[in-house]
Amino acid sequence: MPHTAVTEDGRALTFEVAGAPDGPVVFLHQGTPCSRLIYRAHAAAAERLGLCLVSHDRPGCGRSSAQPGRRIVDCVSDVRTIARHLGISRCAVWGFSGGGPHALACSACASDLVVAAVVLASISPVESGLDPDNPRMQAVLDAPEAARSQFESEREMMLRAQPEDLEGWLGGTLPAELHPEIGRFAAYRIETFRSSMEVSAEGLFDDQWAFAHAWGFELDSISIPVRYRHGTADTDVRPEHGDWITSRLATAEVHRPDDSHISLLLRSAGEDFPWLADQLL
C-alpha cells in the first residue's frame, strides 16, 4: 500500500514498505525508470531476515511530485523526510543501476542516518568520461523539449507492454538457474514501468538530467561500509563504471561476479540482504 510523506517545500513523496514491519530499515533506490514497487522475492527475503524495506518514487516518478532540475544529492533530503515521517534514526541503503548514485549520495551525505550501503551496477558520474555518447543524456542537454517528447513516446510504449514482451529477452540474459524467475520478474518489471510512468515521463527526464550533471558530492568522502557488486557480463552498465567508482571508495568491499545486469539484481536478496542484516542487527 502506498504511503505519502511531505517535504519542507511541500512536495509529496510516495513510498511503500515491505518485509518485517518492525525490523531495521533498508531504503531501496531502484533503477531507472524508478518505481517505488518492491520485488516480491526481495520482500520475502527481507521478512525472513527481519529487515524492513522502504522504497519511494523519485520526484516526477509515479505519484511523487516533480522536482525539475534535481541533482543526485537532492535525494538525501527526500530520504531524511521519509525517515522522519517513519520515526527512523538509523538505516542502510541499497541502490541498483540508476539507483546506485542515489545510494552513494546518502552514504556520503547522511552518515548520521545511514550506517551501511549495498550498491549494484551503478552508473558513474559524467566526469568519469565512460558514457560520452549516451543518447539520453545528450538529448536532455542538447534538445530538452525533443527529449521530453521522445520520453513520452517511450512512456506510451511501456504502458502498452506486456510481460511476454520481456520474457524472451530475459531468457537470453539470465543463466539457466534463474529461468524459473523469468515470468515473475517480467510481470514485476512491466508493473514498475506502469507505476513509474502512470502520470508522465517527467521522472525519466529528470533522472537523465541528474545523471548528465555533477552529482553534488564526492565519492571519497564516504566513510561507512559499502558493499559494491558489478557483474562482469553486464552490457547495460559496463563494469568499467564500477571500477571507476570503487577506485574512489576507501571503504568498499568489491565483488565482480560473472553476472549480467538483471541476474545481479535477482541474486541480490540472497547475496546482499544477509550482509545488510549483519550491519543492522
Strand order of the largest sheet: 1-2-4-3-5-6-7-8
Low-confidence runs (pLDDT<50, min 5 residues)? none
What is the gyration radius calculated from CA atoms? 17 Å
Beta percentage is 15-25%
- Number of contiguous helices: 11
Reported for the largest beta sheet, the result is: 8 strands, mixed
* CATH architectural arrangement: 3-Layer(aba) Sandwich
Shape assignment:
globular
Look at the structure and name the CATH superfamily: Alpha/Beta hydrolase fold, catalytic domain
Mean pLDDT: 95
Computed structural class: alpha/beta
Q: What pattern of helices and strands is seen along the backbone?
A: EEEHEHEHEHHHHHEHEHH
Q: How many strand units?
A: 8
How many structural domains does the protein architecture include? 1
Please write the CATH class name: Alpha Beta
Give a written overview of the molecule.
The protein is built from eleven helices and eight strands. Helix 9 links the parallel strand 7 (226-229) and strand 8 (252-255). It has an eight-stranded mixed beta sheet with strand order 1-2-4-3-5-6-7-8, sandwiched between helices. It is globular. The protein has helices at 40-49, 75-86, 100-109, 135-142, 144-160, 164-173, 182-196, 202-211, 239-246, 261-271, 273-280, and strands spanning 3-6, 12-19, 25-29, 52-56, 91-96, 114-120, 226-229, 252-255. 42% of the residues lie in helices and 15% in strands. The chain has a single domain (3-132, 214-280), classed as Rossmann fold, CATH 3.40.50.1820. 50% of the residues are buried. Helix 6 packs across helix 7 (182-196). It has 281 residues and is α/β, with parallel strands linked by helices.
